[in-house]
Amino acid sequence: MDEIRKVGVIGAGQMGSGIAHVAAVAGFDVVLTDISEERLKAGLATINGYMARQVQREQLDETQRTAALRRIVSTDQYSGLYDCDLVIEAATENEATKRKIFTTLCPSLKAGALVASNTSSISITRLASVTDRPEKFIGIHFMNPVPRMQLVELIRGIQTDAATFELARIFIEKLGKTPTVSEDFPAFIVNRILLPMINEAVYTLHEGIGSVDAIDTAMRLGANHPMGPLQLADFIGLDTCLAVMQVLHEGLADSKYRPCPLLVKYVEAGWLGRKTNRGFYDYRGETPVPTR
Fold first, then answer.
1. What's the mean pLDDT in 136-162?
2. What are the tens digits of pLDDT across the range 15-50?
3. Which residue, among 42, 36, 35, has the nearest Cα to 13 in the 3D structure?
4. Is 199 an annotated catalytic residue?
5. Are the beta carbons of 249 and 260 closer than 8 angstroms?
6. How confident is the model at residue 257 (pLDDT cuts 50, 70, 90)?
7. Is 141 labeled as catalytic in the residue annotation?
8. Would you say residue 2 has pLDDT above 90?
9. Can you give the pTM of this predicted structure?
10. What is the rounded average pLDDT of the residues 187-210?
């Protein structure tokens, strides 16, 4: 294969719908898949809404929006991905879930298709090992929200061949994104730096050094961050933050990466951030209110 033309995306959640969005806007045909029609409808509604806002902001015109939406089809069966040149998995950040997806997916794909994971922390080498094409497997880690964020991390597993890497790099550049290359180490570059900072902010809250508002205000105004670390954690999803910290802690065997007990407690309570309307902030009213 010398060019990627058709892209499959597994997972119609926040990341998957964002990837489908930018690929369609860039002119690629897209097949979006998830385990239920309900999730697919929600994902397509998210894409439609975000594109409508881009039209309002004059980032797209109505003709471009209509054309992009027409390029996206949805299916709840992996067989619908049979003619895709590249399939990107964007499921939950859980290794067992991802391994099961790849094992089930590969028999449905054509021989030359590339397979990628949008994982933010899990070993690309390990994920590739469960497929029938480890040399055609690569990490393509988009940032959230995908339509707005410029960076994409490219991660080669030990088996990834040069042609796969080059096709993935060209694909990212056609999306108008900037690729950066990371070695296949736990959490790669962005989350290796970002998540320990968030975890330390949770420890700062846990130890009573500052309130949610004090910590976020300190980092916004004292370090010029666009949002505070606890607000950012809610945006990412506290379950995802915990999953990345667990990968770091287990993969690097260093106590400095131990997830804060308060982060664990929030996840156990189902307070996962914005997607559940409660996290370090309560989002059920008109204005977010700190929960501590």
1. 97
2. 999 999 999 999 999 999 999 999 999 999 999 999
3. 42
4. no
5. no
6. very high
7. yes
8. no
9. 0.91
10. 97
Residue of 21, 74, 93, 153 marked active site: 153
Residue that has been written with the tokens 């809610």 in this structure: 234
Catalytic residue among 17, 74, 182, 191: 191
Q: In the predicted model, what is the mean pLDDT of residues 276-282?
A: 97
Residue 114 to residues 93, 122, 139, 176, 259: CA-CA distances in angstroms?
Answer: 20, 18, 11, 20, 34
120 classed as catalytic:
yes
Q: CA distances (Å), 84 to each of 5, 89, 137, in order?
A: 8, 13, 14
Q: Exactly one of 21, 118, 141, 182 is catalytic; which is it? A: 141
- Active-site entry in 120, 121, 182, 199: 120
Annotated catalytic residue 191: yes
Half-sphere exposure (Cβ direction) of 17: Cα atoms closer than 13 Å: 17
Matching residue, tokens 């099961």:
100
What is the number of alpha carbons within 13 Å of residue 157 lying toward its C-beta? 26
